[in-house]
Amino acid sequence: MDEPKVTGTKPKMSTTRKILLMLGFLSTLAVIALITVAVTQNQPLPKNLKYGIVLDAGSSHTNLYVYEWPAEKENDTGVVQQVEVCKVEGPGISGYSQTTEKAGPSLEHCLQQAEDVIPLKQHQETPVYLGATAGMRLLRLENKDAADKVLSSVEKTLRSAPFNFQGARIISGQEEGAYGWITINYLLGNFKQSGWKKFLHSLKSVSETSGALDLGGASTQITFVPLEISSESPQNLLYFRLYGKDYQVYTHSFLCYGKDQALQQKLARDLQITKNSRLSDPCFHQGYQRTINISNFFKNPCTSIEKKQFPFSQLYIEGEGNYEKCRRNIQDLFNKTNCPYSSCSFNGIYLPPLQGDFGAFSAFYFVMNFLNLTSDVPFTLDEVASAVQKFCALPWHEVKLQYHQIKEKYLSEYCFSGAYILSLLENGYEFTTENWQRIHFLGKIGSSDAGWTLGYMLNLTNMIPAEEPPARPLSYGSYVGLMVLCSLVLVSVILLAWLLFHKPKCLQKGIV
Ligand SMILES: Nc1nc2c(ncn2[C@@H]2O[C@H](COP(=O)(O)OP(=O)(O)OP(=O)(O)O)[C@@H](O)[C@H]2O)c(=O)[nH]1
Ligand SMILES: [Ca+2]
């Protein structure tokens, strides 16, 4: 019997099917090649970093900052970041008025630290700037020759460092305020908004920039964009065009109203009414004692108008620890009697109505941070006042015991500083219970300290363009994502087409 023949009845592939299959294969190959080329061709180049150094020669001390940014993104906003900060040992440069030749050498240790952070081959091209603030403004008023000699000494040291020296000068209070405002808004990404953020902001009429409050040792600055621009006090108005947008900014710097000089002013006033060399001070803790040398006390331009002869050369201060009394005592520093403008802060200085959020940094932050008053959810004005009151009421021996790790100079003054900050903001600028919580106490934004130095460098290196630089519509990530998505859609369409042209058996009616 013949076995039934099992013949290979493989269905022959039709020519159309073969062509379609080939087409599908080739398109998949093309899509893969397209993605590979796109991804490799458009990959960001290896980071080419640039560096810049700014020395903040403040009244109390000098800080050296090293900034870093990718060279190819120089004009983008938010790309410059602080990579190093070095606190110079000893006093601020104005403290070298008697030994001017030592001002420069005091910076050497921090300059060495900058040399270690910045790659050797980039030392020469790295710009270094020094800006001196209120301490040097005061020294210039008191003794111009000493101020010039201090600046020459620091210039000599900076020129001998391996960096590209770009100048050492005293910046004005206006500049200090403006650059602080630029720094925080640059770091917060408020200048240039792209894509959705820009669209959302155009829908809500949100306040686009944040005001800046800086409290130093010798001066304090307030800077913000007011709701309405008034030309009553042109010296307080600045005009900027940044990333294609105009900003009209109010700024004022109060010399002698930094927290150290405010204390000096307060003591000078207290001295006027003391009968003897003992002074009971409500702004220091009970049990705290401090001696002040009166002979040098009135050389300072912040206290010189109170100068008079005393039958004693030393003043003995004894703490009383009374917050309410301290507030009343400090209030006298803010003269609210005469205002030649539509509205004023104090001492007859124009201040437009406060507007928007404020970032408060330097000593505003140091003090509030010490008092645990800098959480993300802002404290109310009453909560802040009662925290300062409670702290001031602590006897000195208890404060020392509880915070033994903190420098006595700082520790002894937190009560005064807390009360002073409240007086300045509440009485001076007239923040109220309603807008108090719009003040955000901040030390750093990302890795960068809030302060004027970054804004100063961005300005001097022309890193903030007036017009918005042409930008790629998509980021690298979004571009790759879109490429992949389009390619997948393409492959799916081809696959679908193939399925439609040549229905596989399993999809034919009746089989499934
Ligand atoms: N508690 C505390 N106080 C600090 C610290 N650093 C500085 N201070 C004090 O806070 C005040 C302000 O400090 P800065 O903002 O550095 O002031 P500055 O830049 O030296 O002074 P200006 O030239 O007026 O800006 C001064 O009284 C300093 O002594 C800190 O880390 N902790
Ligand atoms: Ca400062």
Summary tags:
18% strand; Nucleotidyltransferase, domain 5; single chain; binds guanosine-5'-triphosphate; alpha/beta; 5-stranded mixed β-sheet; 15 helices; binds calcium ion; 512 residues; 6-stranded mixed β-sheet; disordered N terminus
DSSP, total strands: 16
What small ligands are held by the chains? guanosine-5'-triphosphate, calcium ion
- Low-pLDDT sequence parts: 1-8, 203-207
| Termini gap | 38 Å
CATH topology of the domain at 47-170: Nucleotidyltransferase, domain 5
| Structural class designation | alpha/beta
The percent range for helix content is 25-40%
Q: Determine the mean pLDDT.
A: 90
Shape: elongated
- Order of strands across the widest beta sheet? 8-9-7-6-13-14
Question: What top-tier CATH class of the domain at 47-170 fits best?
Answer: Alpha Beta
What percent of residues are in strands?
A: 15-25%
In CATH terms, what is the architecture of the domain at 47-170? Answer: 2-Layer Sandwich
